[in-house]
Amino acid sequence: MPETEEPDLGLINSTVVIGAGLLGASIGAALTRAGVTVHLTDAVFSHARVAASLGAGTVDKPDPAAVRLVVVATPPRSLAAVIGEALDKYPNAAVTDVGSVKSRVLHQLQSTGRDLSRYLGSHPMAGSQHSGPMSASPDLFVDRTWAVTPHRQVSEPTADRVRLLIQVCGARYTAFTPEDHDRAVAQVSHLPQLVSVLMADHLLGIPSGHLELAGQGLRDVTRIAGSDPDLWEQIIAGNVDALRPELEDVRTRLDELIDALDDPAHKVRAFLQRGVNGTRQIPGKHGAPAMDYAQIVIELPDTPGALAQLFRDFADAGVNVEDIQIQHDLVRQVGYLAVSVEPGHLRDVQEAMRAAGWRLV
Amino acid sequence: MPETEEPDLGLINSTVVIGAGLLGASIGAALTRAGVTVHLTDAVFSHARVAASLGAGTVDKPDPAAVRLVVVATPPRSLAAVIGEALDKYPNAAVTDVGSVKSRVLHQLQSTGRDLSRYLGSHPMAGSQHSGPMSASPDLFVDRTWAVTPHRQVSEPTADRVRLLIQVCGARYTAFTPEDHDRAVAQVSHLPQLVSVLMADHLLGIPSGHLELAGQGLRDVTRIAGSDPDLWEQIIAGNVDALRPELEDVRTRLDELIDALDDPAHKVRAFLQRGVNGTRQIPGKHGAPAMDYAQIVIELPDTPGALAQLFRDFADAGVNVEDIQIQHDLVRQVGYLAVSVEPGHLRDVQEAMRAAGWRLV
């Protein structure tokens, strides 16, 4: 399905969304906005009703035979049962789910002996500290990664419908085997969750007066530790096998770090540098590749108002300054400003700055 | 010094700031704005000049005998030497520093045999991912905690001048013994730094494709791991004794967590709940105590536009809605919205919502 072709929404019209929480209601809102009829259900009817009142679909019941797509967005521990029921109840629908662990659910479904050609698991990389339909948005998935986890039985029409769902939600499609997916989320999602909890748990043992000295760093590291323990217990229970070796690896390197404390200048320094390198592995915001900015170095003359003028000239040139560093020339005692800009704009910025009379190094 | 009294800025006029990085330049800017003459120096002269051009003071040299306060804001490893030189060079000045570890510097100074009645260490809880004078702001310390760490030799005039510095910068004064301070920052600053690095370091060992699935949680947990390794090596080297037992405690609980994986429903659940409780220990933004919001529960009638009307009524009542949750009544099948507001506004909001025709539960 090339991106340029108008998607055939008939493929997924109508859709049933089971579970009208943040994810389900947001999917409903995105599909509804695109023109797809969405039927919302929830074990708690008022959730479905609130989601419907926010534009995520209708609480009217569909003709089961007319349903083309079912999205299961219920809590992790109920997924296999609800997916199985959906396959039975909607005989012409592709069924997907948005759970964050894939292998165990697939194995549970396989163990029921069902034909799974109409089931394809998926996992959108979106969420919020807030849960429930009140935080839902049709734009929740825009530019986010949405992984599908194909297994051998998946039929082509099923794959097409799930791909269309992802397209309509504005997300970026990617595919993993269920096993690779679960290993990946163990590493980049479940492990950070437990590391954050480990740090937050530690705070229970320290004098409360000491927390007066807490800064933004502690808040950032522990933010996700405040997440719903009930949800996370289910996620971790579903992915214990992938998580255990990751935690054991962290323990090994924690042992190394404790030993390294005797040699801060070399061993701790190397550890800290590995941390910096590690953060550079993370793609930029919303899954865009981490950008290497281009740098322009400008000599800073010793005249009043020079800096203010420089920034006015940047603004006039339409330059988005990404970062600024000051550099120095110990011998000549002049200052330099190193300015980071998007690589594609490098040449234009250089020309504009030269034209404005600045000396580039 | 009662807050209501006009501060006598003559006590700290003139002030020398040694080290024109983010902290030094910001202190210079705050004092300059208040009317204090600030003399900036830096081992790299262009740093001082840029800070001066941004309004943080002058690069002119002071009369050493006329200097009343010296603020040392140089990198950690140079602190003791620079403080010692400042005590010698400015015979009538109180000297403070803004280093993040206090005991070791004090012991180093004590070992020189100097009279330390004019030295009082301090530590403002402010910073930024960006370093250098370009990010400086006279408001950097407003409402931030600024700890002083008195020792037995500190004279009263010295304590008064440092307290005035903190007041002029708009920060919140607090006092710790050097040992308690260092234990506290080990717990709430240095340990989170190393935990963040531990997580970021781990990313170097995983397939890069797996990072496609990274979300905001990983970015938050690892953000501070991207900090300057040179600075952090110095901080850690200065506080190894306080850090070691904290890291060892984390290792003990990591061992427990790995064992707990066999029993997610009870042991992992309890661990996750402790994490939530831990995050609640952290005071609110800018050192304000964590606020317990008051909750109002409103019945949500099944009429179109009810939610939109509710939020219009909140806005008309001038209510700052802090959080929203939906609740449900399984029997009556009606929805409730639980709205969190500041406790002081509870009664007003209740009255306004009742007056607007809503049913409060």
TrEMBL record, chains A, B:
<feature type="domain" description="Prephenate/arogenate dehydrogenase">
    <location>
        <begin position="13"/>
        <end position="294"/>
    </location>
</feature>
<dbReference type="InterPro" id="IPR050812">
    <property type="entry name" value="Preph/Arog_dehydrog"/>
</dbReference>
<dbReference type="InterPro" id="IPR008927">
    <property type="entry name" value="6-PGluconate_DH-like_C_sf"/>
</dbReference>
<dbReference type="InterPro" id="IPR046825">
    <property type="entry name" value="PDH_C"/>
</dbReference>
<dbReference type="Pfam" id="PF02153">
    <property type="entry name" value="PDH_N"/>
</dbReference>
<keyword id="KW-0028">Amino-acid biosynthesis</keyword>
<dbReference type="GO" id="GO:0008977">
    <property type="term" value="F:prephenate dehydrogenase (NAD+) activity"/>
</dbReference>
<keyword id="KW-0057">Aromatic amino acid biosynthesis</keyword>
<dbReference type="InterPro" id="IPR002912">
    <property type="entry name" value="ACT_dom"/>
</dbReference>
<keyword id="KW-0827">Tyrosine biosynthesis</keyword>
<comment type="similarity">
    <text>Belongs to the prephenate/arogenate dehydrogenase family.</text>
</comment>
<comment type="pathway">
    <text>Amino-acid biosynthesis; L-tyrosine biosynthesis; (4-hydroxyphenyl)pyruvate from prephenate (NAD(+) route): step 1/1.</text>
</comment>
<dbReference type="Pfam" id="PF01842">
    <property type="entry name" value="ACT"/>
</dbReference>
<dbReference type="InterPro" id="IPR003099">
    <property type="entry name" value="Prephen_DH"/>
</dbReference>
<keyword id="KW-0520">NAD</keyword>
<feature type="domain" description="ACT">
    <location>
        <begin position="295"/>
        <end position="361"/>
    </location>
</feature>
<dbReference type="Pfam" id="PF20463">
    <property type="entry name" value="PDH_C"/>
</dbReference>
<dbReference type="InterPro" id="IPR036291">
    <property type="entry name" value="NAD(P)-bd_dom_sf"/>
</dbReference>
<keyword id="KW-0560">Oxidoreductase</keyword>
<dbReference type="InterPro" id="IPR046826">
    <property type="entry name" value="PDH_N"/>
</dbReference>
<dbReference type="GO" id="GO:0006571">
    <property type="term" value="P:tyrosine biosynthetic process"/>
</dbReference>
<protein>
    <recommendedName>
        <fullName>Prephenate dehydrogenase</fullName>
        <ecNumber>1.3.1.12</ecNumber>
    </recommendedName>
</protein>
<dbReference type="GO" id="GO:0070403">
    <property type="term" value="F:NAD+ binding"/>
</dbReference>
<dbReference type="InterPro" id="IPR045865">
    <property type="entry name" value="ACT-like_dom_sf"/>
</dbReference>
<dbReference type="GO" id="GO:0004665">
    <property type="term" value="F:prephenate dehydrogenase (NADP+) activity"/>
</dbReference>
